[in-house]
Design brief:
Blueprint: H1 11-47, H2 55-81, H3 88-93, H4 98-102
Length: 114
């Protein structure tokens, strides 16, 4: 027989439980976003072998690397919020390329000229 956790708890316990639930959910979302960004980069690389690629192709790849770097940053921040601070296993398990690791960080938006 399943009992609802919230029925036997004081409000602060319920809130703490829901916060942990949300952290775990956000961690999953960030992990899936990283997987998708890395998959897009790998698909692009498979379709466009390295070498003398035209400038638009190089620019498109740089954008994919930046997007993957941002997704990696978001995932690392969420992991740290959950108390997971060893990122070496993350880089290995997700097979994160060095260039993505180097581009890790928040998205920087350029200010529009006035």
């Amino acid at each position: 027989m399943f009992r609802d956790f919230r029925l036997d708890r004081v409000p602060v316990d319920v809130l703490a439980y829901e916060l942990v639930e949300e952290r775990a959910s956000a961690l999953g979302r960030m992990g899936r976003a990283l997987e998708q960004a890395l998959a897009r980069l790998r698909e692009f690389d498979a379709a466009h072998p390295h070498g003398e690629a035209p400038a638009p192709t190089q620019q498109a790849r740089r954008l994919l690397v930046k997007e993957a770097g941002h997704a990696l940053w978001m995932f690392v921040v969420q992991r740290e919020a959950c108390g997971l601070r060893n990122n070496r296993m993350l880089m290995r398990d997700y097979n994160v390329p060095a260039e993505v690791q180097l581009s890790m960080g928040p998205k920087l938006t350029s200010a529009s000229p006035q």
